[in-house]
Each structure stands twice: as structure tokens, then as C-alpha cells.
TrEMBL record:
The gene is potA. It catalyses: ATP + H2O + polyamine-[polyamine-binding protein]Side 1 = ADP + phosphate + polyamineSide 2 + [polyamine-binding protein]Side 1. One of its GO terms (cellular component) is ATP-binding cassette (ABC) transporter complex. GO terms for molecular function: ABC-type polyamine transporter activity; ATP binding; ATP hydrolysis activity. The lineage of its organism: Bacteria, Pseudomonadati, Pseudomonadota, Alphaproteobacteria, Rhodobacterales. PROSITE patterns: ABC_TRANSPORTER_1 (PS00211), ABC_TRANSPORTER_2 (PS50893). This is Spermidine/putrescine import ATP-binding protein PotA. InterPro entries: AAA+_ATPase (IPR003593), ABC_SmlMolc_Importer (IPR050093), ABC_transporter-like_ATP-bd (IPR003439), ABC_transporter-like_CS (IPR017871), Mo/tungstate-bd_C_term_dom (IPR008995), P-loop_NTPase (IPR027417), PotA-like (IPR005893), Transp-assoc_OB_typ2 (IPR013611). The complex is composed of two ATP-binding proteins (PotA), two transmembrane proteins (PotB and PotC) and a solute-binding protein (PotD). It comes from the Bacteria.
Length: 358
């Protein structure tokens, strides 16, 4: 299948002393009909990449293709792309239908009002066509903005944090709505967010960005389970990290030595390791905790307990002063497995251990 968007060495610097390198030579392919998310902290360059695709910014270097065609020189209105912004700017003096039909009428589309009504039906606001935007809730207004952006049938829809102005419950219900809209229209969605839950729950694939660079592109489960870099592992989910020296045990396993008393059995050293120390990590919920101590296992004193409802988080201070966090299911009556100050053993299966070299 043809890619919707292909970028090669795409670079954007903003003027300044020194210049701001917002995007540092990125390569990326976004597939047709994909729900693709750009995820990263504030300032990592996600909006810049989105604006380059839309044509609101001109790249400093590199190429940008849409459906195989180099569009670097095409003005925004000539691109088969539309954008939904965080702050939906609906026209207050027009009713909802007129808002959705506006762009189509300007393009001289003969059946603009009929298409606009179909789009309102698609976002389940068909009955609200005659209302003014001010007579709608925030979530409804954002759905009108979506209908308006979808109405000209763009091949790609760019969404710049479109849910961030909504409250939590509404945000959660809009996630399912956006996913449905993407499936039903078959339009490629490129969604920008700094919210990992949003990214994990909606996307076919995610690009995690940091400081103008793409760190990893993968499906949500792969990003969570097999982060490519320490940045990705820290930005998404919670994990324990240890600096360790590897010792190979045959071709498919290794032991990672953190200190005299702490070592983890894990997978073989990754091919890109260049010798020396590596970072060993495991997710909090992948480890188990048991009361009391067992010889030769990882153990220490529980220094902190945080009750989280379905789970409890335990912080264990190991004998040599390092600490490890474990998230564990509670007993059926909700009580914790162990108390602060008591001795505990932490177990981690070799399958849960990930080795990071970047
Ligand atoms: N017009 C501009 N002039 C100068 N610097 C800019 C401009 N626009 C963005 N930047 C800088 O480029 C970097 C990337 O900004 P960008 O808006 O792409 O990040 P972002 O990941 O979308 O962040 P946020 O989530 O806060 O919107 C930042 O350091 C920002 O300050």
C-alpha cells in the first residue's frame, strides 16, 4: 500500500541566536488509512512537524511527500490536508450547519449543505444543525470542528491536541469517537498529543519524539513493552532503571550485575551494545513482591506504600541502599501484602527485563 506521508531528512530551524533546531533531520512514513500519533513532551517538535505537513511552515531542509508527490512547494490550501486545532474557532454568528458548510461553499461545491448535514450526522450532531456554537457544550463544539474539517474529504486530517481543552470524562469518550471517525471515513489521521494514555488508546502506530528527534516508531504495545531508548521508557509508563555490567551466559541470555548483591538474569545483550555498562529496566507491574526474605534473592525493607485502588505501589530499599518500586494487586479485601518497615522479597522474571543502550 502507498504511504500517505513520507518525510526524509526533514529539518526545521527557527531564527534566533542560536537558531532553534525544532526538527533535526527526521525520516518517517505514515501509511494510508492509519491513525498515527506524534507523542512527546512540550517543545519536542510535534506541532512543527504537523505544521510542515499542513504547509504552514517551510522546511529548512529535507523532503516531504504526500501520496508519493513532493509537496514541499505547494501552498496549504492546495494540499489534500485539513487541520483541527486545539481551540476550535467556530464562527459565533453562524449556526452549526453553516459553520460546517462554510469551507465547501467557498470552494463552490454545489451540494455543500447536504454534505455538511451528512458530516453532522457522522459526528452524531445531526439534530443540532440550527443551533449556534454558543448553545453547544465544549465537546459538541469540538465535534462540529471535526465535521467541518472532514467535510471537504481531505486525504489526511491533522489533529493538534484537539482534546486538551475538554475535561477528563469528555476526553475519554472523544477518544472512542475519534477512532470511530477515522475507521468510518478511512482518512489518514495524524494526531499530536503529549498525553501517553491518549496515544496508547487510539493509535495504530506512535512516533515518540524528544528534542526535535524521533526516538521510536511502533505500535502502542511495542512502545510500552519494548521501548527503544531510555527516553521512551521513562516518558511512557513507569519503570525501574539500573546501570549494569553484562556477563553473557551463552548466546541467548545474560546476567546483569548492578552491585555485589543486585543482579538480574535477562536476555542477551542487544546487537547495538558497544561494550561497557548498559541500562536494565523493568516495568513496576512486571515485578512481584512477597513478605519476608529468601536466601539469594533480591530483598530489602519496605520504605513506602502508596494505595492506588486496584493496585498498591511498594518502594523497597534494598540492602545496599538502592531502591526498587513494585506495583502489585491487593488482597481480595483490599489490604496490602506487606507493611512499611517490614522485610520483603522482590522477584523479576528474566522475560520482563529489557536492556537499553541509548
Ligand atoms: N515560530 C517559532 N519561532 C521560534 N521558535 C519556535 C517557533 N515555533 C516553535 N519554536 C520552538 O521550536 C521548538 C519546538 O516547538 P513545537 O511547537 O514544535 O513543540 P511541541 O512539541 O508541539 O510543543 P507543545 O506541546 O508545547 O506545543 C520549541 O523549542 C519552540 O520553542
Amino acid at each position: 500500500m502507498q504511504d500517505a506521508i513520507t518525510i526524509n531528512g526533514l529539518t526545521k530551524s527557527y531564527p534566533g541566536t542560536p537558531p532553534v533546531r525544532a526538527l533535526k533531520g527526521s525520516d518517517l512514513s505514515i501509511r494510508d488509512n492509519e491513525f498515527f500519533t506524534l507523542l512527546g513532551p512540550s517543545g519536542c517538535g510535534k506541532t512543527t512537524l504537523l505544521r510542515l505537513i499542513a504547509g504552514f511552515e517551510v522546511p529548512t531542509d529535507g523532503t516531504l511527500k504526500l501520496f508519493g508527490e513532493n509537496i514541499s512547494k505547494l501552498p496549504p490550501e492546495k494540499r489534500p490536508v485539513n487541520t483541527v486545532f486545539q481551540h476550535y474557532s467556530l464562527f459565533p454568528h453562524m449556526n452549526v450547519l453553516e459553520n460546517v458548510a462554510y469551507g465547501l461553499l467557498r470552494q463552490g461545491k454545489p451540494d455543500a449543505r447536504r454534505t455538511a448535514q451528512e458530516m453532522l450526522d457522522l459526528v452524531h450532531l445531526g439534530e443540532f444543525a440550527k443551533r449556534r456554537p454558543s448553545q453547544l457544550s465544549g465537546g459538541q463544539q469540538q465535534r462540529v470542528a471535526l465535521a467541518r474539517a472532514l467535510a471537504p474529504h481531505p486525504r489526511v486530517l491533522l489533529l493538534d491536541e484537539p482534546l486538551s481543552a475538554l475535561d477528563l470524562k469528555l476526553r475519554q469518550s472523544m477518544r472512542a469517537e475519534l477512532k470511530r471517525l477515522q475507521r468510518e471515513t478511512g482518512i489518514t489521521f495524524v494526531f499530536v498529543t503529549h498525553d501517553q494514555e491518549e496515544a496508547l488508546s487510539m493509535s495504530d502506530r506512535i512516533a515518540v519524539m524528544s528534542r526535535g528527534e524521533i526516538q521510536q516508531v511502533a505500535r502502542p504495545a511495542e512502545i510500552y513493552e519494548y521501548p527503544a531508548t531510555r527516553f521512551v521508557a521513562e516518558f511512557i509508563g513507569d519503570a525501574n532503571f539500573f546501570e549494569a555490567t553484562p556477563r553473557m551466559n551463552g548466546d541467548s541470555a545474560a546476567t546483569y550485575h548492578v552491585s555485589d548483591s543486585i543482579r538480574f538474569a535477562g536476555p542477551a545483550l542487544p546487537a547495538n551494545a558497544k561494550g561497557g555498562k548498559v541500562t536494565v529496566m523493568f516495568r513496576l507491574e512486571k515485578a512481584r513482591i512477597a513478605p519476608g526474605r529468601a536466601d539469594g534473592s533480591l530483598g530489602g525493607t519496605i520504605s513506602d506504600i502508596e494505595y492506588l485502588g486496584s493496585q498498591t505501589e511498594y518502594r523497597v530499599t534494598l540492602d545496599d541502599g538502592m531502591s526498587v518500586a513494585v506495583r502489585s494487586e491487593n488482597h481480595q479485601d483490599g489490604t496490602a501484602i506487606a507493611e512499611v518497615g517490614s522485610q520483603a522479597t522482590v522477584e523479576v522474571d528474566p522475560e520482563a527485563i529489557r536492556v537499553l543502550v541509548a
